Amino acid sequence: MGGAEAPGARELDQTPTWAVSAVCAAIVMISIILEKVLHSTGEWFQERHKKALYEALEKVKAELMVLGFISLLLTFSQSYIAQICIEEDYAYTMLPCTKKVEEHHSASAHEEEHHRRLLWYDRRFLAGGHHVKGCQTGYLPLISLNGLHQLHIFIFFLAVFHVMYSAITMMLGRLKTRGWKEWEIENTKDHDAMNDPSRFRLTHETSFVKDHTNAWTRTPALFYFVCFFQQFFRSVTKADYLTMRHGFVSVHLTPSSKFDFQKYIKRSLEDDFKVVVGISPLLWASVVLFLLFNVHGWHAMFWFSVLPLFIILAVGTKLQAIITQMALEIQERHAVVQGIPLVQVSDRNFWFAWPQLLLYLIHFVLFQNAFQLTYFFWIWYEFGLKSCFNENFVLIYLRVALGVGAQFLCSYITLPLYALVTQVWICEP
What we know:
Blueprint: H1 17-47, H2 51-82, E1 85-87, H3 88-91, H4 107-114, E2 139-141, H5 145-178, H6 181-189, H7 191-194, E3 200-202, H8 207-212, H9 220-233, H10 238-252, H11 261-276, H12 281-293, H13 300-333, E4 336-338, E5 345-346, H14 356-383, H15 393-421, E6 425-426
Parallel strand pairs: 5-6
Antiparallel strand pairs: 1-2, 3-4
């Protein structure tokens, strides 16, 4: 392999067969158990007619297969990649850490600097030497064997965190919509009273209009400022939910229909989750760009963690603005309504008349947030918490806090809000 081996390292022909078989058996058993768990979960979704969640699970399995193929490809080609040589001047450009003055230091100093658990087991047979066979003087390998092994670990972390974050996203979204079930039950009990023919009101007297029309929202300069803070303190009120429900039922069902709108929202959330759980080529491209610009001194990790939070706040503000615009449009009619006012959302209410753009942005935020925290924990595991990647601990703590906050905000507030607002969306020809 061209790299230095630890004392006592042995090839497979000098390794006991019981050791080889034991390791292989353990790996095979873990893989089979994981496959059985995923298969059982898929059958559970099918038995309960959760088609969207089943398709989302299939998409997760496909993404895991892609990550596994990437890892297999790295394993097969690592010796060939390590033999690619580049000039030493190019080898020390755009480094994620400062250049080390002394390359060949003692094993104790190496362990103190990195604090890596894997080094405790003398895993030096993968560590490419400073001069790989085939590289001339003044040239260095494109990526060492040790660096390729660290990429293997990163892929494993990415696969694990991708599954974890998908589960957390769906759990928080369903937790939010579960809180609307009480309003659905109350609406079913009061259905006859709310549709009483003698129950007429002016539009500005309805709870929905009162909640969203005040002196602040009538001022253009403060309109989006108010909508920005509404997503934190009152993202979906009871009046909002009942008004959206009335708009959906009036368009798609008969007014007297006792439809379980909350259950329908849960299924719509599952349909949206099926979209945001995948990893598209554009998202892979964002990973490549992050790895490219993660240069020492550029603080790319911090800026890439701020971007998802900025986007999700903008999306949440836009969704709140759409709800407020509906209330203002109802107020401008100065009409008399029976019960709950009728609301509708059209393409013109969204950015570039493209409602799906908001879902794509939510997808980007969820993936970037998961990737950022995956990268942080991978750095911690491979190089230690106090490594050259984490020189500024203030930025590190802030980045982790932003990642956790963006994950909660996107999963618990923005994604359910998007599922609710788009139910009264009328596609324009």
